[in-house]
Specification:
6-stranded parallel sheet, 339 residues, 12 helices, Alpha/beta knot
Length: 339
């Protein structure tokens, strides 16, 4: 009796264990088997293979994007370093050229003795011309040794130059309160003025060229010429009459009076090319009413214009002026700039 009772008890225990096992099995059966990537394990091999290939392509794209991003970052870093190096090299070359010009280059002086005769408006324009003149000299292949004479630190012109020109104190030029008459031998000086009778034939390294720093709205003639005669120095004018002719215009306006930066641009180009035919258009605006004689078919004496490859690479502002002669200043009779 006890044996049968124990057997029944064992059977019930086995039934309970089997029930638990079935319950667990039922739960496992209800769950759909999936891979670690969330793919149904009951899918066909073809579907699984396609899914694996898709995962590989996705990983490859992610890796490629990461590599491209890294390459772009490295490339940008190299470009920045190269650009920074280029700027440093250009600045170093510019400083070297200006330093060499201050030792052995031709000398050009802006005579500022007439600054007290000008209004504030005229002084502002003169300060702007000095800035452009210095900028042209910095970009030149063969710069000049520049002087600003009779330039007082307590003058209105000095205040205007500092106000209009950033870094004016660092300009690589000589600024002095002395007169050019006390700095240079009279026999070495040529005062450039539009009223001179003799035309300038050449630009040499031994001559000191003087430009009259004067912006005159009242159109007082021969001011710089009279000052040169009083000082007893040689005078010369740009050879505009020898290489250019008057061009008809609506206002019948023709003028050979240029700003000091325009005269200086002509001297720079001539020194680099040796051609007045190339130099004059670089500084004489179309609005002045003059054009090269060779462009009109008129034969004139003097040096034939020649093409210089230096202008194509080293002086982009000059090339731009030569290629676009119609970009000259507007034609108006005031203010008149005497040089």
């Amino acid at each position: 009796m006890e044996t049968s009772f124990s057997k029944n008890k064992e059977l019930k225990a086995k039934d309970c264990a089997l029930g638990d096992i079935f319950e667990l099995l039922q739960i496992d059966v209800d769950l759909e088997p999936t891979s670690a990537n969330g793919v149904d394990m009951n899918c066909s091999r073809n579907v699984l293979r396609k899914h694996r290939n898709w995962e590989k392509r996705l990983d490859a794209k992610k890796t490629k994007r990461k590599e491209e991003k890294q390459r772009r970052k490295q490339s940008q870093t190299v470009e920045k370093d190269t650009l920074r190096l280029s700027k440093r090299v250009i600045k170093a070359i510019t400083r070297e050229r200006l330093a060499e010009a201050r030792l052995s280059g031709p000398r050009l002086c802006v005579d500022l003795s007439m600054a007290d005769c000008m209004s504030r408006k005229e002084l502002s324009r003169l300060a702007g011309q000095i800035r452009r003149l210095y900028g042209s000299n910095r970009n030149a292949l063969r710069p000049f040794h520049l002087y600003l004479t009779e330039f007082r630190l307590d003058s209105r012109l000095y205040t205007e130059c500092v106000r209009m020109n950033d870094g004016f104190h660092e300009y690589a030029m000589e600024m002095t309160e002395q007169s050019w008459l006390h700095l240079f031998p009279v026999e070495d000086v040529v005062y450039l003025t539009p009223d001179a009778e003799q035309a300038l034939e050449n630009v040499d390294d031994e001559t000191v060229y003087i430009l009259g720093g004067l912006v005159d709205e009242s159109i007082q003639k021969k001011m710089t010429y009279s000052r040169a005669l009083e000082a007893g120095v040689r005078t010369a004018r740009l050879p505009i009459e020898e290489h250019m002719v008057r061009q008809p215009n609506g206002k019948n306006f023709h003028s050979k009076i240029l700003a000091i930066n325009q005269v200086f641009e002509i001297l720079l180009v001539y020194r680099e090319t040796g051609s007045w035919g190339r130099a004059l258009p670089a500084g004489v605006p179309a609005g002045k009413g003059y054009t090269l004689a060779v462009e009109t078919g008129v034969k004139r004496t003097g040096r034939d214009p020649s093409v210089c490859h230096l202008l194509d690479h080293a002086r982009p502002p000059i090339v731009e002026v030569l290629q676009q002669p119609d970009r000259g200043v507007k034609v108006k009779r005031s203010p008149v700039v005497s040089w």
